[in-house]
Amino acid sequence: MPTITTADGTEIFYKDWGSKTAQPVVFHHGWPLSADDWDAQMMFFLGQGYRVIAHDRRGHGRSTQTDDGNEMDTYAADVAALADHLDLKDAIHVGHSTGGGEVAHYVARAKPGRVAKAVLIGAVPPIMLQTPANPGGLPMDVFDGFRSALLANRAQFFRDVPEGPFFGFNRPDAKVSQGLIDNWWRQGMMGGAKAHYDCIKAFSETDFTEDLKAIDLPVLIMHGEDDQIVPIADSAHLAIKLVKHGTLKTYAGFPHGMASTHPEVINADLLSFFKA
User: Fold this and answer.
1) What percent of the chain has pLDDT over 70?
2) Can you give the pTM of this predicted structure?
3) Are strands 115-121 and 246-251 parallel, antiparallel or unpaired?
4) Residue 219 pLDDT exceeds 90
5) 266 to each of 99, 118, 180, 184, 257, how far by Cα in Å?
6) DSSP structural state of residue 108
7) How confident is the model at residue 1 (pLDDT cuts 50, 70, 90)?
8) Active-site residue numbers?
9) Who's near 33: CB < 8 A, 6+ residues apart?
10) Which of 213, 205, 202 is closest to 243 using CA atoms?
11) Cα separation, 274 vs 276, whole angstroms
12) Which one, 60, 155, 220, 263, has least CB within 10 Å?
């Protein structure tokens, strides 16, 4: 398997498909998933002539099940190491949910010439947690509930999330895909429990406000209006006010996992942004 080894000895698994002279598109997955969550996008953009890359975040998927470094500074450093290893130039970075936070944190710090554009899909920035400065955020007991459920029965928790709010399958008119549910569970159970536990703090408590302000290149923010995991009012609607060169596109009735439930819509809009 293709991997890089970071400075602390962690092996990061990655996929790298397509011509090495084509413009790279780097996909960053959500919690607690893996690069496999981007199959519909990887195949589509490979067919469009792009070089497509996706990695398993440390502690997730096929990467090392780390017991430390499971926070945004290290996640971004791992991405920088991958970009250096592959010598990526003018890359487009696309992040979903936690991966959107990773994109913001990395792009704000990237070496000149490494990044051309960024996309945040159902992403956690600016900050998910309710604080005095972010009164519309989710209270800590929501995330404590995630931690408790993971410790009590991770395997069942990783059934409950995709069967319910992640893909909107708890809505009365939902067209349920058992394959998506099973694939979500498969990806989640590949990762390490300690890394997944730590990542809850990383995605909920990291404040990406200054990262968003620092990004001086085009940013597309895409968000489902029926996102039950990362509510749009305290994420995309705030993030668009912080980026210098942002475009906000929202989707009526779409869930958090809309890149999987509606890939034909999301891929078309991504392609338009890439080519603009």
Assistant:
1) 100
2) 0.98
3) unpaired
4) yes
5) 16, 15, 17, 19, 11
6) T
7) confident
8) 97, 227, 256
9) 60, 61, 184, 187, 188
10) 213
11) 6
12) 155
User: Which is nearest to 242 in space by CA: 126, 129, 134, 104?
Assistant: 126
Contacts of 147 (CB under 8 A, 6+ apart): 197, 200
The DSSP-derived string for 182-203 is HHHHHHHHHS-HHHHHHHHHHH
Q: What is the pLDDT of residue 224?
A: 98
CA–CA gap between residue 78 and residue 57 (Å, rounded) = 8
Q: Are 118 and 24 in contact (CB under 8 A)?
A: no
Q: Torsion-angle region of residue 152: left (phi > 0), alpha (psi -120 to 50) or beta?
A: alpha
Cα 77 to its chain centre, rounded Å, is 16
144: amino acid identity, one letter: D
CA 162 – CA 152 distance, rounded (Å): 18
Task: Count the alpha carbons within 13 Å of 171 in the hemisphere toward its beta carbon.
Answer: 16
Q: What are phi and psi of 14, to 5 degrees?
A: -150, 155
